[in-house]
Structure formats: C-alpha cells, structure tokens
Write a structure and sequence with these properties.
- The longest helix has 27 residues.
- By secondary structure, the protein is α+β, with helices and mostly antiparallel strands.
- The protein has two domains: 30 residues; 220 residues.
- The radius of gyration is 21 Å and the shape is globular.
- The relative contact order is 0.13.
- It has a 16-stranded antiparallel beta sheet that branches.
- The chain is built from four helices and 16 strands.
- β14 and β15 form a beta hairpin.
C-alpha cells in the first residue's frame, strides 16, 4: 500500500469518527435536559410541610459497556412526618444515550419500608428481572422501548406538549410492564412562592403499575410541566398509602 493511500484512509477514518461524534453531540444537545441539571422540590402532605425531593441529571456511566443517561431522585421526609410515614429513598435510572429504553433501574429505601431493588433489563431476551436484597423474582416480558418509572419524567419532556395529546410510554418496575398513557389534560397557571408558572398538566395512568388509586377515581399521579423549551416538572402530586404528597419546585439549576 502506498503512503499516499495510507494517509487518505487515515483521513477518511478521522472524518467518520468526527461525524459520529457530531451526530451524538447534536442528539444530546437536542434534548430538553443536560448533565448537571438539578431540581429541588418542597414536599407537602396536605397542609403539612413534609420534607424535600431532588431530581438530578448525573454524569454518564457505563452499564454493560453502554453509555447511559443517569437520572437520580432522592426523597426525604422531615421529622414531623417521620412519625407517621418515614421516607429515605433514592432512585437511579440508567437509559441508553439515545433515550430509547432503560438499561437498569435501582431503588433503595431505609424508611418505614426498607428496599434495595435492582431491576435488570435484558434486551436480548426482552425481559426485566426484579431483585430485592439480592432475591430475584420471575422475569417479566418487556414491551419494545420500555422505561423505568423515574425515566418517565424525562421521556415526557422530549415530547412537545399540547393540550389534548396522549403520549404512550411503556413502563416497567420489574414486576409489571404496561403501556402508560400520559394525557396532556390542559394548560394551567401555577403560583409557587409568588412566582407564576405557565404549565401543562400531564396525567399518566400509573394506577395499574403503582397499585394505588385515589378516592373517587382520582389518578395516582399528576405532573405539571413548564410550558417552555425545558418543560421542567414544576409540580408533582403522588398518591401513597397514607394520602397524597405534593412536590413543588423551589429551585432549579441547569
């Protein structure tokens, strides 16, 4: 092989590598979130201050050799609520870098209901396996493009929200896998600490997955996303065994 031909091949390989990098960077920049994003929420249990929750986009890590988006959510109740319902929980979601499916999901709690859960997604065999404290349960069949419950917040943000739309997202917690329909119920103005937020109210039908249904058919979850480019969750209402918790955004950094 001549030296000229060798240099041409090296040059072409370099162009291909650069093109791949640019494509990957463009795909990442197109997402409405980025690494370093951190949102802090005040938790309320009815009219009672209950603690806080933090949702973050952490640095990418590898899962089975694949790059990931790493999302985390920590939830902590305060001493006033600990007497009734103590929560010290962390969730970690690892999706593929193109945000087309989840690769791994973890949930760890040291509150009233201790958990140490790892959900392994086997995309070769299309199954997800739930393991608690190392004890694995029977795998469940995965729907194509399935995500975990935490990734749901970020997947919804990749859709341009419009009132009346319904977004279908397969979700599994390792025990069930369902096609969640997230309905954009309407546009509402929320006021939090004197600041007005233009939002879209999204209601994902999580009842079958969470196994909790509110009174008179009230949905188990409601999420208000800001009506801007980032579409940040501004308010989250979640039904639990002892009532409803409401999380309101108090600070956000990007």
């Amino acid at each position: 092989m001549s030296r000229r031909l060798l240099w041409m091949m090296i040059f072409l390989c370099g162009l291909l590598v650069l093109a791949g990098y640019l494509d990957c960077s463009a795909a990442t920049e197109a997402l409405p979130f980025r690494q370093g994003e951190k949102m802090v929420y005040r938790a309320m249990w009815g009219a009672i201050p209950a603690g806080e929750a933090v949702i973050e986009v952490l640095p990418s890590v590898a899962v089975d050799g694949a790059r990931t988006h790493h999302f985390a959510m920590t939830t902590t109740t305060n001493s006033q609520v600990d007497v009734f319902y103590k929560v010290r929980e962390r969730q970690d979601s690892y999706t593929d870098i193109s945000l087309t499916r989840t690769l791994q999901y973890r949930k760890k709690s040291t509150g009233n209901h201790p958990r140490d859960v790892v959900v392994t997604y086997d995309w070769k065999n299309r199954t997800a396996t739930y393991a608690s404290f190392g004890n694995a349960e029977k795998p469940v069949e995965l729907l194509p493009g399935s995500f975990d419950p935490l990734a749901l917040f970020f997947v919804i943000r990749t859709h341009r929200l419009r009132a009346g739309d319904v977004i279908e997202i397969p979700i599994t917690d390792g025990k069930k896998c369902i096609a969640v329909k997230a309905a954009v119920a309407g546009r509402e103005t929320l006021t939090i600490d004197g600041k007005d937020y233009d939002t879209f109210l999204v209601i994902p039908d999580m009842d079958r997955l969470l196994g909790v249904v509110g009174q008179k058919g009230e949905p188990s979850m409601k999420i208000w996303f800001s009506a801007d480019e980032e579409q940040v969750p501004v308010r989250i209402q979640s039904k639990v065994a002892v009532g409803s918790f409401v999380f309101e955004l108090v600070s956000a950094s990007f």
